[in-house]
Amino acid sequence: MSKKTYAGIPEKYSRLDDAKVVLIPVPYDGTSTWQKGADKGPEAFLHASENMELFDIETRTEPYRKGVYLAPSVTESSSPEKMVEAVYRTTKNYIKQDKFVTLFGGEHSISIGTIKAFNESFDNLTVLQIDAHADLRPEYDGTKCNHACAVFEASKTTNLIQVGIRSMDIEELDHMDENQTYFAHDIISDDDWMEDSIHQMTDNVFITIDLDAFDPSILPATGTPEPGGLLWYETLDYLKQIFKKKNVVGFDIVELCPNPNEKSSDFLAAKLYYKMLAYKFKYGTNQNTVENEND
């Protein structure tokens, strides 16, 4: 991946020393089990970001002025386990520098390392997973670091809340807290699901978004699209409430599988990332001081 600034922002807003945000691309697609191409996701996301207007109308802000450092990509791909370890160490390094750390995948297995780093750094962490799939398998295809296992460890070590789920294997029920799972077929008729799920969150929240959470009518370019997903404005409404009420300590976005003939998915991913920065700096606490220093 060629080195550039995030969204083509001026160099003065992209220096690590001054930037409040770190963006780590992880172009990894080693365990995908259907459509390949998530390793091309970060490049497509960055290209779309370069062609995006940088004034956020809703918040009347320009989030990039807080500074966004585009970190070198994590390119370790010799094994899923080594990739997860590389993501973990890279993420932990930037968290220790008191940055608001964000990642763009790549497939969802990258989140195993990401979540581990955040869980070691922030007390009593909630992981909010917005996703079509449960991703709760203890092991899949010979490894615990498969995209189908993305939040298994988080289900045991953090306060995991799952939103938008509409596809899973029966074995995953053994590892799921259904009281903190908001299935897509239920939330469509539940006016209180946003408020109820936010009430279950602790103060510190890490958000992991698999783009297949969105309905394929608005985001078809993902590895395993599922019908019946979330739409744009309801998702933004939900995220905005979370940023207002909780301390979002970081987030990742995964599973963009770009289609050269369909660019709207790339732009949705770019706008989603930028909107989350807008909400963080407009409504958030902006307090991301590391609480645990365990290595």
UniProtKB/TrEMBL annotation:
<feature type="binding site">
    <location>
        <position position="210"/>
    </location>
    <ligand>
        <name>Mn(2+)</name>
    </ligand>
</feature>
<feature type="binding site">
    <location>
        <position position="133"/>
    </location>
    <ligand>
        <name>Mn(2+)</name>
    </ligand>
</feature>
<dbReference type="InterPro" id="IPR005925">
    <property type="entry name" value="Agmatinase-rel"/>
</dbReference>
<dbReference type="InterPro" id="IPR023696">
    <property type="entry name" value="Ureohydrolase_dom_sf"/>
</dbReference>
<feature type="binding site">
    <location>
        <position position="212"/>
    </location>
    <ligand>
        <name>Mn(2+)</name>
    </ligand>
</feature>
<comment type="similarity">
    <text>Belongs to the arginase family. Agmatinase subfamily.</text>
</comment>
<dbReference type="GO" id="GO:0008783">
    <property type="term" value="F:agmatinase activity"/>
</dbReference>
<feature type="binding site">
    <location>
        <position position="108"/>
    </location>
    <ligand>
        <name>Mn(2+)</name>
    </ligand>
</feature>
<dbReference type="GO" id="GO:0046872">
    <property type="term" value="F:metal ion binding"/>
</dbReference>
<dbReference type="InterPro" id="IPR006035">
    <property type="entry name" value="Ureohydrolase"/>
</dbReference>
<feature type="binding site">
    <location>
        <position position="135"/>
    </location>
    <ligand>
        <name>Mn(2+)</name>
    </ligand>
</feature>
<dbReference type="GO" id="GO:0033389">
    <property type="term" value="P:putrescine biosynthetic process from arginine, via agmatine"/>
</dbReference>
<keyword id="KW-0378">Hydrolase</keyword>
<keyword id="KW-0464">Manganese</keyword>
<dbReference type="InterPro" id="IPR020855">
    <property type="entry name" value="Ureohydrolase_Mn_BS"/>
</dbReference>
<dbReference type="Pfam" id="PF00491">
    <property type="entry name" value="Arginase"/>
</dbReference>
<feature type="binding site">
    <location>
        <position position="131"/>
    </location>
    <ligand>
        <name>Mn(2+)</name>
    </ligand>
</feature>
<keyword id="KW-0479">Metal-binding</keyword>
<protein>
    <submittedName>
        <fullName>Agmatinase</fullName>
    </submittedName>
</protein>
